[in-house]
Structure prediction request, 221 residues.
Amino acid sequence: MTENQTLKIAVLGGTGKEGSGLAMRWAMNGYSIIIGSRDGERAAAHATEMNAKLGKNQAVGMGNPEAATQADLVVLSVPYTAHQATLESVKEQLQGKILIDITVPLQPPKVRTVHLPEGKSAALEAQALLGEGVKVVAAFQNVSAEQLVDPNHVVDCDVLVCGNDAEAKATVIKLVKTTGMKGVDAGSLANAVAIEALTPVLLYINKAYGIKSSGIRITGI
Ligand SMILES: NC(=O)c1ccc[n+]([C@@H]2O[C@H](COP(=O)([O-])OP(=O)(O)OC[C@H]3O[C@@H](n4cnc5c(N)ncnc54)[C@H](OP(=O)(O)O)[C@@H]3O)[C@@H](O)[C@H]2O)c1
Prediction:
């Protein structure tokens, strides 16, 4: 069996726009996907839909805590307003695992203006809440869900990846590659402040230029 076939990835909030796009790409690459939701039935229905599109049974769906229990690696893809509550609901289940936090702390209605939350960044808040037993890695904040809708579409942007555990970061950079994008090592988790803050800037650019999904590209590597 390849590593892809043995690694189970849970996407909490995988019923939503960003999470389902990423989940679909990983499923297409052979990863076992667990869709997590506040509602296990909604998650199961979403997984069934995914499997129908894939033509194979690569995904299952369940409630967030059960999804986090069964997974080897967990992705958090919920709005910032649900960030703390979702993390609290899976804190115990995440211990010893990698958590990829893709949350952007937007502050509606001013989503095109940078807003730093109390803990400076969502990923730093996640690490503080979960404790050192969880390897929090921040990634994908600057990738528009619009780009992920068609799983065969090649996304024209890079993914900044930051975290305090080098091995966990390397695992995530490898996972980014399987989505068709390039993961770039962007340093320690403290740098999530800048990465998360780029998203409102991209949302501003989208509006200013009448486009849906601007992205970032790192040159010179
Ligand atoms: N959309 C983008 O283009 C994009 C790009 C980069 C990063 N992000 C970040 O990715 C995360 C997810 O974005 P999204 O656009 O996929 O969000 P979304 O579709 O609005 O929500 C994702 C999922 O989160 C759960 N959820 C929604 N409201 C909730 C609440 N009040 N309490 C608990 N769970 C709730 C829902 O799952 P259940 O109802 O099934 O539990 C929902 O399907 C956000 O933090 C966003 O900033 C988004």
About this structure: The first helix runs from residue 3 to 6. The mean pLDDT is 96. Residues 13, 15-19, 37-39, 42, 77-82, 86, 102-104, 106, 141, 143-145 surround NAP (CB under 6 Å).
